Amino acid sequence: MSGPEIVRQWIDERVDLREMFAPLMEKTVPRHRFSHWYLLGGVTLFLFGVQVCTGLLLLLYYRPSMNEAYESVQYITNRVAFGWLVRSVHAWSADLMIFMAFAHMFSVAFLRAYRKPRELTWMSGMVLLFLCLGFGFSGYLLPWNTLSFFATKVGTEVPGRMPVIGHATLLFMRGGEDVGAATLARFFSLHVVVLPAITASMILLHLLLVQKFGMSVPPSVEKEGPRFGSKVKFFPNYFLRDVMTWSVALMVLLVLAVTFPVELGKKADPFGSAPAGIRPEWYFLSQFQTLRLLPATILHIDGEVIGALAFGLAGALWVGLPLLEGRLGRNGSRWARISVLGALVYLASTTLYAYFTT
Amino acid sequence: MATKVVSPPTSDPIQPFEKRKSRRKILKVLMGGSLAGVWMSLVYPLVRYLIPPAEANVTTNEALAASTGDLKPNTAKTFRFGSHPALLVRLPNGEYKSLSAVCTHLGCTVQYQPETQQIWCPCHNGRYDLDGRNIQGPPPRPLVAFDVNVRGEEIHVSRKQDA
Fold first, then answer.
1. Which residue among A158, A275, A292 sits closest to B125, beta carbon to beta carbon?
2. Does domain A3-266 bear CATH number 1.20.810.10?
3. 3-state class of A115 per DSSP?
4. What is the pTM assigned to this prediction?
5. Which terminus in chain A has less CB density within 10 A, N or C?
6. Looking at this predicted complex, what is its ipTM?
7. Is A340:A110 a contact under the CB 8 Å cutoff?
């Protein structure tokens, strides 16, 4: 018997590997004309793995204080061998992960995979998307450059304008009245400890739910009747497809990171003016553009208060989409489809508008 | 077939069932209450800990903004006024104006635009005139204007006395 075989048998005698992996071995994935959309969740997960690995590498040199943060990122970029690459992959992978999470969300929404009994899978996925945005927002500040300083200033001011709990929220986020050393310390611990811990457990829950209910078959495919029913085994058939997709994602990621290495910009000056052309990361451009377009006051209430409340309400409605669809009865599916299309059109158009006008 | 009714155990000679049930209820309330108390005594300091202590609110009334040679006509600079940035503008006619540089919309730091002779916030494209009035875009309120005093070579900026 060979070495690895002896080890395998030794473990098998104790934990019964076949029983342990039975759910994965028996798992099947429906095959139909939309099944490639199932791959997006897996790519998002893969990119999260890339974030964990590159994040750990950046942690070896990054120093989270107002006087050292910018310099340490500069050191990583200019002095550490392949530091520029690690940082660039981390930044690009973050962008791609959030893009893939949005694509995954919209594919689930359009194929109406959130229907009963998968409401909780949808909601846990939405929590994961919010966590991703939290990662993006908190990580953006860490290099402590002008752009990130003002993005954080505005980003923490918006929830600060909510009635009643606004000011406490602002203090909680900033660790003081202004964006400063305390904010950097908070964002750092959020980015590298709190969010990863919560995200890991949410991913586990999300995957358990996906495993429990299996992949959803879109209603339009189900209607076709006899043609539906074709399935592929998850392991190894579908898993290999996943691995192929991940490899393509990795290639795209490396090409982007090498061709367009992420810039560092100027060190933040808390008493300097905000530079022209300032804007947040692309995934906040839609909210950014909305705030720019809102008038100063609406019905005697400040425009940004209305904006902050509207973002909160829209987010809550979106999370509750599967429940709302059920509530609306027979017309529910039509309303859901219109809302999903409306959300996509609004997000895409405001994002592009902001992108081409700033 | 006759169904057998299973009655709750009432054989306890000392406590009838109903009385024991109500005693259980009281115990549940007491237990639950004390457990909730223990947890709350942990949650309360935690929430308080997360919100930072109020900073000593030192109201600054005056700051040294620049020296007279610093600014050419139709330019501006930011300076520190207490814990916030402020703006000192030298108008084309040589006169000085000073305003808070904190945009009333979402707190970005504004800048002077020599081409338009307006104050502009690059974050959400808000505009103010040189008296601080919000004239375009999302800002809901005017910028706070300060008094400018030139003493020798030093330009001092102070809060308006009448405000």
1. A292
2. yes
3. coil
4. 0.87
5. N
6. 0.75
7. yes
